[in-house]
Protein 1
Amino acid sequence: MQIRAYATLRDIMGRSTIEMAVGAGTTAGQVLARLSAGHPGLREKLWDADGQLTGFVTVLLNGRALEYLNGLDTLVADDDTMSLFPPVGGG
């Protein structure tokens, strides 16, 4: 699958796009855990002390927010695209 990171998250990961092979039955939560294990600065942005998403990062799967799918239990496939967005403000 393709994982795209934007703005400050791209800086933490060192690149804007990562390819990750996923097997049948892989969940979005497992992908995020693997991704954050390889990028320690990302871990603190994604996960709270209880192992839940912090809400600091918006996670989309194929353009849809995980919270409107099956959350961290959403199944993913090799042809999916996951996008990670930090909060954005303006004024």
Note: The mean pLDDT is 93.
Protein 2
Amino acid sequence: MQTTILKIFLLFVAVSLSLVGCDQVSEQISYQIAEQKVRSINLALIPSEREEGLAFLPFTDTYLEKRHEIYNRLSADSLNENQQSELNYLKIQERYPERYLPWPAHVNVLHNALMQQASEQQIKQWMTQVIARLDKAKQSKIYLSRIELSLLKSYLTDVSMGETLQAYLEKYKPRSGIGLYQIPNGKEWYQSKLNFYYTQAVAPNMLLNEVQEQLAKSRNKASSDIKLDIVEPFALSVLKQYCDNLIPGLNWIDKYVNLPGTYADCKPKLTNETKKVLLALMEIDLGINYQGWSYKQASLTLGSRLHIADKQVSALIENTVLYPGSILTFLAAI
């Protein structure tokens, strides 16, 4: 009896100490401070000329814990609607398989780490973790797409300290598809992205029907004069062309721009040609990431909608794979 009482008492003490520790960590911070802290941990993803030294590399346990702490300490009372919506979205993204894919294919992390004066030991340890995480991901049936794999290989070309990882990637077998649908919980992950960028919770099939109805109104092919660049979402490129004021955000993938917030603030008056291009990209985005379209199917569909070269088709599909859902930011305007 005494032993049982002692165990209960010790459990109570442990829980109490844990709660005290949580309270100490949960001191709230402003949005501006959160911005600074997020940028600081993301220097390997988006380098800064003003800062030297690198404390974090993606997506190590230390990195993920620090980012989670920043999100949780952000004072909700200080947030406007756009900021709160983005914070909710970023917290939801923490549930999904990012931790298994520690080198995001959008970015040459190795190059950026060297720019920020990371030590050779730091980089080698991180690369070892990349291999370990990718192996662990296989156990959960999470694999890179061939587009992601190809990009990672290109970053390691002619880099002496990357031989081990390069050899590993040469033997790596990517998943057969290129969209999120093929990853465990991938459709739910994609839906969470649509909810944020489109700002409403609507089923992908319904969105695809709406997009294709709009496309059916014109059989003429459109052309695009917007610069193609995988270093940022195509949606952001369009907003930069049409909007003078970009609303700040916390998401490094969107270059710290709140895309739906910027769209709502700017209300861009898109040309008919741009609308057609955006609709064509929305179609393949939904097709690739939810319907399971192959690269070939997406390529043929895009080629039938747009008057662009094969190289541009490839660049747009690559952009769609790397930044899923973000192009739906514009659907309400069309």
Note: Residues 181-333 form one domain.
Protein 3
Amino acid sequence: MNVLWLQAAGCGGCTMSLLCAEAPNVFDLLAGAGIRFLWHPALSLESGAEVRRLLAAIEAGEIALDVLCIEGSIATGPNGTGRYQMLSGTGVSLLDWLRRLAPLARDVVAVGTCATYGGVTTAGGNPSDAVGVHYDGARPGGALPAEFRARSGLPVINVAGCPTHPDWVTETLMLLAGGALTADALDSLGRPRFYADHLVHHGCSRNEFYEYKASARELSEMGCMMEHLGCVGTQAVGDCNIRPWNGQGSCTKGGYPCINCTAPEFEEPRHSFTSTPKIAGIPVGLPTDMPKAWFMALASLSKAATPARIARNATADRMIVPPAPGKPR
């Protein structure tokens, strides 16, 4: 399967994340699945005239384009020309290259939240008029129109994340290589459901504290970060804590709240990422899968039943009260 990867307006963090794939590494994994990069700006040796010849051959139909991957948002300014970002040496904007190549691709994959919905590049007034490949924030229709479909019949596949988990990218590509990714496998925002059907909350190492609403008040503390520190893992899609990054880490495991980076418009939440907005002392954002009244009732009961061990550990930077050994029967 031939993959062409273009980097648009972004930091390149999704490529850096992809390179951190382990067991097996990204190169062995993709080679084993019969996937090869026609060109990747950070990984390929070709540049200049060689890349221009490759693009010309793809446009002429001489080289099959199975998957077009776009990393980074698409700058459409000034005035819709896209000339804020040119593909070096071609005299053509990334916006125009996307619109020329996307109809030729069997599938189009937007890698990272900048490419999927606009992401961080659109924050702060969006001076470059950046949009996602197929979405402008949460609204369908970005650099490509809402009705766009690749040759496979699929819409743009939105592998959202800032950055993406390396496994989300490799699994998506392997499913495409095997012809196993269908429209039913995408959620309402075009994200692959193998990770979007989970919440970041699932598998979180702080779940014991969450169950008793034993909350941390400082970032260094062990307790749940939802009540005071802005964590939205109970609302954010992603299997980050089910399959930790490189088998070990996640934002919440590292002591930082989930900021819902797989969602449109996460980049401007209108409050600090590390502070929970509240009304009358009640967090504004509550778990997506529980009615508010139920949550408040259960939270009150849980706080009243909190074991002393959990209450003390929640506001400590390390475990100070270990679990008591169970009595043998």
Note: The mean pLDDT is 93.
